[in-house]
Design brief:
The protein is α/β, with parallel strands linked by helices and 644 residues long. It has 4 domains: 42 residues, no CATH class; 163 residues, Substrate Binding Domain Of Dnak, Chain:A, Domain 2; 148 residues, Rossmann fold, CATH 3.40.50; 225 residues, Rossmann fold. The chain is 52% helix and 10% strand. The protein contains 27 helices and 16 strands. The strands form 4 sheets. Strands 6-5-4-7-8-9 form a 6-stranded parallel beta sheet. Strands 13-12-11-14-15-16 form a 6-stranded parallel beta sheet, sandwiched between helices. Strand 11, helix 20 and strand 12 form a beta-alpha-beta unit. The longest helix is centred in the first third of the chain and has 35 residues. Bound molecules: FE(4)-NI(1)-S(5) cluster and iron/sulfur cluster. Iron/sulfur cluster binds next to loops.
């Protein structure tokens, strides 16, 4: 491993790379064994390119790369594009990238549902309640129809949005979003028609020699944020709940300590529950074979959003978030890491080669040199999942006991808080009017406001640190927190998702509410102060909850005392999700500076002017304490405006 200042500084500060003691332990093991991780690769990249960081580098045509000097000349690219245009175009393409990832993910789920409904896939449809609710919102007739028929009609309705060629808004969006929001977006001309078409058009619009108007490009950003929100997140969650069931509260655990010294360890990683659910199913069925192979059983764990999906629905523990993926392998205890799409580092096979771990890729678009490829398609998912589990069992004998070191660190963590589950818990307090207890407590100030904390880890900031510090302060101030994605896994690691976490972290008033609801719901203690709502596509659940609250109060989402935060965002997807949140009318904090500062115009629109259009805006703050203060002040202002 290359010695460098960054690393030494990290040690001096405790560890600048991570706040997670399990991660720090494994990072020390990595250093001792000469294994490089993302942190060392990041250090080797420093200093990163200033033009790139400001967003003023353009490679849109072969006359480039052109870059604008914010402190002097040149001020124009070869074609005449200035910093505002270059930054706006780059931002749009980032959002297109995020939206495309989520949309393609949702599309796979729709394909799977369609084939399952026709009996052509190895999946049983489990979410009967969700079939009813999604059919109702789409206006699909259910009377006298078999659930499978309705499920097929739902899949076809989704395909219709991807295939339609008229200029009407996409149906999934108008069927889901509050009418007031739809009107606002329509008046701005940012309603997507067909999500695929919008992605194509945005790539065209941002090409060399097409749109030269940065403000027009920023409106396209809003549109693509909506493509992500409804063609990606909402469709993804709705369809996945139909296939695999709507999550309900479940007790699990989080951090590297969930891995077992005695068992075959299988990690699911990526995003598609079609893959992870099948691996979980077969790992449970084939446990006996693992015992025959000399292990005590099979331990399943997840990282990133696949981890969230199987935690939410199956109670499978989380081994960690984005920056823990390499560390899981470095424990020396993982037989197989299965990946599908998104957020798995290309480094994995190289790290796995230092141990006995096999990395298994499962989709045609997510291959890794050095990994085994077992393509898992809906029609042959059982056989493929079995072969992956057997590969892990067979690999147990290759484990080198001398290299196994699993940190004895993990926390209990509750997950499964879908909107249905939250409403269900509230209904134990008021069955007639489930949202009333929550709203009454918001009005009374017992729940001061609510914040959705979402997104990734990023090597630029200390793993989990900003997330934990921000959330601590919000909870002390009686703000209810819901979480998804890698921040949910971060908070799970530190005990924020346990009843005890309520006593430890929540302000007095919030604790009283959590206790009342938790006890009424039969949990025998308070609800956790941070509710795990799932993966990143499950941010749609947060959108649904906001829509329901706004509907109940008969106000716009933009008037609610709420905010969103992505303290450690990394992926393009986090940018597109954030844009959707802003379009919903939500103040959205980011804790890593996005590459837009090279354009004063773009920066101003995103952090100021867009609020006048949609009610939401971005704010950048790297200090979690200050970010919490800004969010609290925002909540105070919204409360005042509502007269509460
Ligand atoms: Ni969201 Fe989930 Fe994690 Fe970030 Fe990646 S796993 S989709 S993008 S890194 S939260
Ligand atoms: Fe340079 Fe314009 Fe080409 Fe971009 S599109 S690389 S600014 S010439």
């Amino acid at each position: 491993m290359s010695e460098n200042l960054y690393f030494e500084k990290g040690l001096a500060m405790g560890d600048a790379r991570s706040a997670d003691p399990a991660a720090i332990e494994v990072l020390k093991k990595a250093k001792a064994e000469g294994v490089e991780t993302a942190h060392e690769r990041y250090a080797a990249q420093l200093p990163q390119c200033g033009f790139g960081e400001l967003g003023v580098c353009c490679r849109q045509c072969l006359q480039g790369p052109c870059r604008i000097n914010p402190f002097g000349e040149p001020k124009l690219g070869v074609c005449g594009a200035d910093a505002d245009l270059i930054v706006a175009r780059n931002l749009l393409r980032t959002i297109v990238g995020g939206a495309a990832s989520h949309e393609d993910h949702a599309y796979s789920a729709i394909r799977c549902l369609y084939e399952a409904a026709q009996g052509k896939a190895d999946y049983e449809i489990k979410g009967f309640d969700k079939i009813q609710s999604v059919a109702a919102k789409l206006g699909i007739e259910t009377e006298g129809k078999e659930p499978k028929e309705v499920a097929e009609a739902i899949a076809l309705a989704a395909f219709h949005d991807f295939g339609k060629f008229d200029d009407e808004p996409m149906h999934w969006l108008t069927a889901t979003a509050p009418a007031e929001r739809v009107e606002v977006w329509q008046s701005l001309g940012v309603i997507p028609r067909n999500p695929d078409r919008e992605i194509r058009t945005a790539m065209h619009e941002s090409a060399m020699g097409v749109d030269g108007d940065p403000v027009n490009l920023l409106l396209a950003c809003l549109k693509l944020g909506l493509v992500d929100g409804y063609g990606g997140l909402q469709m993804g969650t709705d369809i996945q709940d139909i296939l695999f069931g709507t999550p309900s509260p479940v007790k699990s655990a989080a951090n590297l300590g969930v891995l077992s010294k005695d068992n075959v360890n299988i990690i699911v990683h990526g995003h598609m529950p079609e893959v992870s659910e099948k691996v979980v199913e077969w790992a449970r069925k084939l446990e006996e074979e693992a015992v025959k192979a000399g292990a005590k059983g099979i331990t399943l764990a997840g990282v990133c959003c696949s981890g969230n999906e199987v935690l939410m629905r199956q109670g499978v523990p989380s081994a960690g978030n984005f920056l823990s993926q390499e560390l899981a392998i470095i424990t020396g205890a993982v037989e197989v890491m299965v990946v599908d799409v998104q957020c798995f580092m290309p480094s994995l096979p190289k790290i796995a080669a230092c141990y006995h771990t096999k990395v298994v890729t499962t989709t045609p678009i997510g291959k890794l040199p050095g990994a085994e490829h077992v393509e898992l398609v809906p029609g042959d998912a059982d056989a493929k999942a079995q072969s992956i589990v057997r590969l892990a069992i067979d690999n147990f004998k290759n484990r080198n006991a001398a290299k196994v070191e699993i940190p004895d660190i993990c926390s209990e963590a509750w997950g499964g808080f879908s909107v249905e589950a939250i409403v269900g818990a509230l209904a134990t307090v008021d069955p007639e009017n489930p949202l009333k207890p929550l709203v009454d407590n918001i009005v009374a100030g017992n729940v001061y406001g609510a914040v959705g904390v979402v997104g990734c880890n990023n090597t630029k900031v200390r793993q989990d640190h900003q997330t934990v510090e921000l959330i601590k302060k919000l909870l002390q101030n009686n703000v209810l927190v819901v979480a998804t994605g890698c921040t949910a896994q971060a908070l799970a690691k530190y005990g924020f998702m346990t009843p005890d976490g309520a006593k430890q972290y929540a302000g007095e008033k919030l604790l009283a509410v959590l206790t009342a609801v938790g006890e009424a719901a039969g949990l025998g203690g308070p609800l956790p102060p941070v509710l795990h709502m799932g993966s990143c596509v499950d941010n749609s659940r947060i959108g649904d909850l906001l829509g329901a609250l706004a509907g109940y109060l008969n106000v716009s989402i933009k008037d609610l005392p709420v905010a969103a935060s992505a303290p450690e965002l990394q992926h393009e997807k986090a940018v597109s999700i954030g844009t959707w949140a802003v379009a919903l009318g939500v103040l959205t904090h980011v804790g890593v500076v996005p590459p837009v500062l090279g354009s004063p115009l773009v920066t101003k629109v995103l952090t100021e002017d867009v609020e006048g259009l949609v009610g939401g805006k971005f704010f950048v703050e790297l200090d979690p304490g200050k970010a919490a203060d800004t969010i609290l002040a925002h909540i105070a202002a919204k409360r005042k405006a509502l007269g509460i």
